[in-house]
Batch of 4 targets.
Target 1
Amino acid sequence: MLTRRSFLQSLGVGAAAGAALATSPFPLGAFEPSRHGQAVGAKTALGATRANAILLNSNENAYGPLPKTMAAMQEAIGWANRYPDFDYDALIWTISDLHKIKPQQVVTGCGSTEILRVAVAAFLGPGKKLIVPTPTFEAVGEYAAATGAEIEKIPLTSSYAHDLDAMLAKAASMPSLIYICNPNNPTASLTPRKDLDGFVSQLPANSYVLIDEAYHHFATDSSDYASFLDRPVDNSRVIVARTFSKIYGMAGMRLGYGVSTIENTQRMRSFQTQDNVNMVAAQAAVAALQDTAEMQTATRRNAADRQEFFTQAGKRGLKPIPSFANFAMMDAGRPATQVMTHFKQNGILIGRRFPGMDNFVRISFGKPAEMQKFWAVWDRLGASS
Ligand SMILES: Cc1ncc(COP(=O)(O)O)c(C=O)c1O
């Protein structure tokens, strides 16, 4: 019989996590560096690990879902025996009302990760090219590789913006999908909207641009930033992706959406899993989108947390890359893997190493008490290395 333990052992995590749990109040040593490895480790420890650990590694909302969203989830769960048709309709109408678009222009995903996947499936394949910045959120590249498309990685500029001219130049030779992550993960940096406008206007006729606005709400106070949903352009080759995992605190509910022309969303929808949005997520999302006041409170709270992070970093002579998100990336002056290990030994998970940024660490902002512990552990870093 396949017991839970033997299943976990078949994943190669059961024994290690079990042993760690027995010996340490913070058995984070069992965790692998990837987010999914960490998630498996947390489950192995039956929640004890997750409850004790300080999770500054996945750019989640440390404060939880917005209060009315939480209430909507609790209310919704009683309908779990029904397929989510009504809930799905309500969600699509709420999104289309918000962005003043037609409902058919919306495509939903199991997280915005699914939006990236269906965009890749719809617009890439052999003889086509994905053009991505590097470093960036890597899922889109992994999906593109599976389609047989070529992948072109263009380093960010010295100010950590997308190198839009270089990206355009690479699109000239082949039908392409260009991925723009704004603000960019892992650098938290912004590519100014005026530059993006120039870029979109020069997009070759056989190319599409996928603009990932996962961190939109954290950037709205910058005059250099404007969403392509709030200020749309008249270009049928623009696709925008949004998520409920960040400002709305619903990462575990898995919900995102894409917006484009009806023709594009139809193409994307044909690769979507049917009924990919569960009913609780749909109802929670409707509540979240309707609650502008709480969303703004969360945005202001993040701005304060970000300010405090930069103040503390400054006191230590650190210079994080200017952040337009709910996390920051900074040069730790030593290998990221070493810093991560030090934090893990102290019950704190931080972001992993990214290509070409060996000495940088990515820190998601936690609650003030969590960040106090973070800085206390940081201050012991010198001693441990
Ligand atoms: C830039 C970016 N896009 C997309 C995602 C995927 O988010 P989700 O699938 O939870 O919506 C993430 C997650 O961290 C991200 O950083």
Target 2
Amino acid sequence: MIHVCATCGTSYASGAIPPGGCAICNDERQYVPPTGQRWTTREAIAARHLNSWRQHAPDLFSIVTTPRFAIGQRAFLIMTPAGNILWDCIANLDAATRTLVEALGGIRAIALSHPHYYTTMQDWSDAFSAPIFVHADDRRWLMRNHGAVRFWEGDSFDMMPAIRLIRLGGHFPGGAVLHWEKDNGSLFVGDILQIAPGADRLSFMWSYPNMLPLPASVVAAMARQIDRYGFDRMFGAFEGQDIWSGAKSIALTSAKKYISHLAED
Ligand SMILES: [Zn+2]
């Protein structure tokens, strides 16, 4: 039986529950609730939750689990002429989701921003015969080995036509965003870049639940990477984190602001 951490959604290989608890939640970038570690199963999640869909554009859907499960992030189904991409992942892969994704053409490739969203990506890969692309610098956070996982290295990786993964680091060493060239360009950022509630500015953190910031030098390096690519839209990990125009300028201005707040008087 596969065990799934109820706090972060990470799935662990069949057999014994990890003796030390969930390694992802024991890390300072996540947390163990005061009530203690809790495990669940994929079947229990599917029995108590369902996935809701939002269509952002004719070729762009997001999928989120309701009522919220674990971290509560959304995954995106990006439809390109070369095939569909699942960007980031959610733990609940229920029968309805399988049927709907299949009807939309399946999944050609899965790509992840960082380990908090790896969840049950191995099951999504099995269901749609899709390779999984994660950055090699986060290799140690893969809790369930799988033959479909491909580790990419360096600062960028041309995954498919018009689709590129870019490593920004920050929250995780291999923290990645997805650049889609279509129209004026879109950047899918997970929470490697955190879109603020007004969808008009960003933040940059090392640990969100524990509210630990990133050093100024790291944010400056992230901004330099971002500056190399053209994009107008940005989509974050949570519902409402959608920027429809001016996203690049918002990203660069926000980085500058953040760095100025870290500076000494
Ligand atoms: Zn966990």
Target 3
Amino acid sequence: MKLLPTLAALVTVGLAFPVIDNLDADAHQKAGQLAARTLKILEEENFQPVRRSALPLPEDALGISRAETNCGPTIPCPYFDAKDQYVSVEGEYAYAAPAPDEIRGPCPGLNAAANHGYLPRSGTATIEETVRGLNKLYNLGVELGAVLAAYAIVIDGDLAGGSWSIGGPQQSDPLTPFFGNGQGLSYSHNSYEGDGSIGRLDAFTNNGDAHSLSIEKFESVYKTGGDDTSENGFDQRFTIDKFRAQYQEVQKHSIATNPYYFTGAFSTVVVVPAAYNFVINFMSNHSEEEPSGYLDGYNFKQFFGVTGKPGSFVWHKGQERIPENWYKRPTISPYGLADVAADVGIGYLAYPETLRFGGNTGTVNSFTGVAVEDLTGGVLNAKTLFEGDNFACFIFVLLQQGIPHFLKGPLDAINSATSFFDPFLTPILGKLECPELGNFDQSLFNQFPGYKYSPTGPATNY
Ligand code: HEM
């Protein structure tokens, strides 16, 4: 979609200043319209901003973590309904490996969705396509899909065209120089992608590549599921608690090996641990015997594009699959924003060492923490962070305030991005009982070299 072709053409011939005001007004209007249109469509599809998360302060968080099923923390999966939960991998949803011009990236859940046509096979999607496709395939909550996609559009996507890339940079439109050259998820380091991932290496330690699967990391997480070393892996069983413990180990390893290790942004405080939880909550299979879901080695490998057995695993880049005879979570139990907040929160309470704000200072094992009090101007501390709705409030404000911080470009573009994004977030925040959180003091992070490390992608798609 072309934005303001005449004005943009003038900008390219060097008359930038006289047109910036007009660009500002038009771009704002357009961003607002795009957000309003999308929200209207979602409303027609029963857009429910959020269930209250009201995370209780559990006395025995570790016990709760250990007892949690693969169905998540809020709504159980009480029965199995084959018709409702069956996921087609035939016809229009048949698997096809990506063509050379199709984009795939760091997220196996999205890659598998695109390889089966639940997301556009091109690897770029609008909010509506994201919400519909991920809801149909995984029963991912409508409001969660909308917020994740809207954020991807403003932070790393094509705001003018209203789409985002699940992998590398999108083709930029020469007529929209201020927009449309988002780096995609693959090169969204710290704004979306972060250190300490379940299967990808930290960007700094892998020449900026945080989207390729590390077989070593996969071997390590695979072991948490048991001792089945057979090729099919049917006897492995992965649980959310084992993954939370694994996250603690991975963090320690990152601190010991990555001089630029950083955690403090929405990406590292929420997206990275949430991705561990997504494996359990979205990739588990469901059956009559195990209605809450189970994840064995076979399904885990299929979703991650891995073949072979422990010791000789092989990753097939961009070839993540939905297994055959796989049944998603039931329609009565979508996994949404409240579940993300609750699951990430339980993880921090059960494994308190993993709640970190700060980073290494340029050498390994130099982790220096920033206190929650300092970051939030004294409004919250490590304990009150988990009272009432505070944690949910905190993560949404972290998300919102990160946008101007990570967006490069003129102020106009940043304002347009926030006017596009805020309508998605405001109804959510409105449902929560939030303390006055003001502006987080993100300048405290400037001391960490990893905070500013921002690798960019090649012009190619991966
Ligand atoms: C709009 C929806 C989604 C967006 C924008 C998104 C985005 C991302 C991003 C940015 C990462 C990199 C995070 C990191 O550095 O660890 C990631 C990783 C991951 N995502 Fe997604 N994701 C989405 C949906 C899903 C779904 C539905 C699943 C599961 C079915 C999923 C599973 C994962 C997993 C397992 C990883 C970690 C991969 C690894 O480290 O090997 N995601 N996703």
Target 4
Amino acid sequence: MTFRIRSLPAGPWGLPIVGYLPFLGDHVYLQFDQLSKKYGPVYSLKLGSFDVVLVCDWPHLKDATSNDALLARPHSMSGNPWREHRRLSLHILRDVGLGKSTIETLVKEEIDQFLTTLDNDGESVDFKKKISRSVTNNVSILLFGHKYDYDDPAAIAISASNAEIASSFNFAGVMAFLPWLSSLVFKFELFNSNRLKKCFKTVDSHIQNEIVKHQEKNSQDVVDYIDGYLAEKKSREERNQIDDNFSIDVLKRNATAFYGAGNETISSTMAWVMIYLVKYPEYQDKIRSEIADVIGFERRPDYLDRIRMPFTMAFIHEIHRIGSVVANNLLRRASSDTKIGNYNIPKDTLVIFNFWSVNHDPKLWPNPDKFDPTRYLAEDGSKVAKPPHLIPFSAGKRNCPGEGFANVELFLYIVCILQKYRVKVKPGTEISTEAAFGLSRCPSNLPTLIFEKISNSN
Ligand code: HEM
């Protein structure tokens, strides 16, 4: 024990039992960044009874994301051989369309439906609610093989539950570090734990219903993720390869993870997109002039068009950097004693990558608080390059499995919206870039937006 404590990187002291938890505010990534100024780029602190190491600069983050001893999640979050499940998940998602044009077609159809909801005769639109419904449909297509009508009560309930879970995540995050406190909170129904429990139940029973429907369908075709998982399960059973880790419960857990991870992240990124489009109308015009040159105003965009749209891509890179929607990644755990740079990381230490610090490091980004898409462009604007230290989806063998899907969605939403509308706010509206931080970092004051139809000659 003494050896372990001594071998951790230095860091701030906390209180007995709770450690540094009581000192953490709403925007933990800012505090983690501040602490790195005092203790160095890699330091440790105690959260509850857990030793946690923070990684806050690019050289160490680069090293850590390529370290095979840092691929695990905390014991409470993983529980099954994730490597196999991850490989299978990616394989199934690829079969049903991820990385192929099938998914692009379905996403485009969904966006067509979404665009009609922005048409409000020049009146303002509650964008966050509308995009959240639309993005939920995209994940539903991937997982369940179908989407929902926007006024379907099941879709409304699941979308609201997901949003509530996401905004309570700071609270849930604290619970992850204090399991004993979490059981007390639920037992005595403190805070709004009862509501939260209900939200989890809504999502859970929705996924359960979908699984039952797929089982009853009993078809050979693999159209979606649940089909793929059930087919693999059946083929294993036929080969007598019974495996407790391959069960309906695990399928439910995986589907929940995709549902949770694929909605809030895209909705929040799109909310930042709207903020910076209305804050800088000149960037809106630049994207629209690329649309005019490459796509025109009649044809639907293809994801492939991005290759000829450097400014649009530069804008998306800068949104990822300045928005830092996933400001610090999901917890990792050291599966054996290891090192990050010269720092010792003992087995079972939890590790947090603070992407925020890297995204705002003035050594990497001159004037880091400025929103400036041109930082990715060649001098004449003809080429765009993403630097290696911009990793919104994390990096290495446990990076975001939804990255490809997310890239397709973001490009198509932005281009489809600007091909049809000029995005505006009411005159005199203040546009704030302040953030709220729950499961993701999103604008705290997205103004109500006006989508003004543009004529094709523009
Ligand atoms: C702008 C959009 C998104 C961003 C910025 C983002 C970012 C991330 C990051 C940083 C991680 C943690 C990786 C690590 O531990 O190093 C992650 C994990 C994950 N993401 Fe995403 N993501 C996005 C969209 C999506 C979408 C659309 C999906 C699904 C369709 C998805 C599914 C997942 C899943 C399932 C995990 C957990 C993977 C694992 O434990 O192995 N994400 N994401």
